[in-house]
Design brief:
Blueprint: H1 20-33, E1 39-41, E2 47-49, H2 51-60, E3 66-68, H3 74-85, H4 90-103, E4 107-109, E5 114-116, H5 132-139, H6 143-155, H7 160-165, H8 170-197, H9 199-206, H10 212-247, H11 252-255, H12 269-289
Parallel strand pairs: 1-3
Antiparallel strand pairs: 1-2, 4-5
Helix pairs in contact: 1-2, 4-6, 6-8, 8-9
């Protein structure tokens, strides 16, 4: 038998390959009884079902038998026939389903029972239009379990293959993903709060120029400096203007003696003009701020 190189359908390639023990059992069955189930291809000639049988036939040097699946929903068909035949747990089935669907560009939305391509707003799958409810019915996997797998896919993608391989249970992976989701939600809330306080800083965080803690630290330092400047300005005005107001109506101006003025603090016409301008500026600001 010549070796055939046949590509697997993208969804079929998500199904874990048979281990050596299971493959040996399959080879023995094919050797004893022949290939009872043909290898199913999609119209493009890719394997939808029978990757293990294909491998067993190659090792046994038996010519495989092929049929072409002519129905709709090739991805759901591939998931359905493979996951039902294999003894995967519900968690593994859900994780394989979510990974396969996501790799096709769709994301499960368990709250609505739909699956949508995030960047297009579409509700249907590319070749089937199956919803999460239909996946639940065909594969026997509850939407709640698919929903947990979807949370793992989104927030703890590094655990996806470990769930599929059985190294970690879906429930344990889901708890880790929930913690990361909470952290992400908290970070998003903090970023929204920062954007309200300082949009420019929030943009720098979004662009990766600043970390969120770093941005809050910079904002706090800036606010503290602004408070310091307000305190200095307030003390200066409170020391200067009330004293000047007390001079009004007295004979202090006629008694002024430039020879007695402290060094560097003599009152000149320029100083008086600047003081008058400063008072006019103060009056305008007080009116604008509606201060008493």
């Amino acid at each position: 038998m010549r070796r055939l190189v046949i590509e697997s359908h993208p969804t079929n390639s998500m199904i874990p390959a048979l281990d050596e023990d299971d493959l040996a059992v399959l080879m023995h069955d094919i050797q004893e009884n022949g290939l009872l189930q043909p290898i199913v291809l999609d119209p493009a000639g890719r394997i939808l079902d029978g990757r293990g049988r294909m491998g067993a036939c190659e090792r046994l040097r038996i010519e495989p038998v092929f049929v072409t699946y002519e129905g709709t929903g090739t991805d759901i068909y591939s998931l359905s026939v493979n996951l039902k035949r294999r003894s995967f747990s519900k968690g593994v089935c859900a994780m394989i389903t979510v990974k396969a669907r996501a790799n096709l560009g769709f994301e499960a939305c368990p709250d609505s029972g739909q699956e949508a391509r995030p960047d297009s707003g579409q509700d249907a799958c590319p070749d089937s239009g199956h919803t999460v409810r239909e996946i639940e019915e065909q594969l026997g996997v509850a939407r709640a379990v698919i929903g947990r797998a979807n949370v793992v896919w989104r927030y703890a993608p590094e655990l996806v293959d470990s769930v599929i391989s059985g190294d970690i249970g879906l429930d344990r992976a889901y708890e880790t993903a929930r913690e990361k989701k909470a952290q992400t939600d908290s970070a998003e809330a903090q970023l929204a709060k920062l954007r309200s306080a300082d949009p420019a800083l929030a943009d720098r965080v979004a662009e990766g120029e600043l970390t969120l803690p770093g941005a809050w630290a910079e904002l706090k330092a800036r606010q503290e400096e602004e408070l310091r400047q307000r305190r200095v300005a307030t003390n200066l005005l409170c020391e200067t203007l009330p004293s000047l107001a007390q001079v009004r109506g007295t004979n202090a101006f006629s008694l002024y003696d430039p020879d007695l003025a402290p060094p560097g603090r003599a009152v000149t016409r320029e100083v008086i003009e600047n003081a008058a301008s400063a008072l006019a500026e103060a009056a305008a600001v007080w009116e604008e701020r509606d201060l008493p």
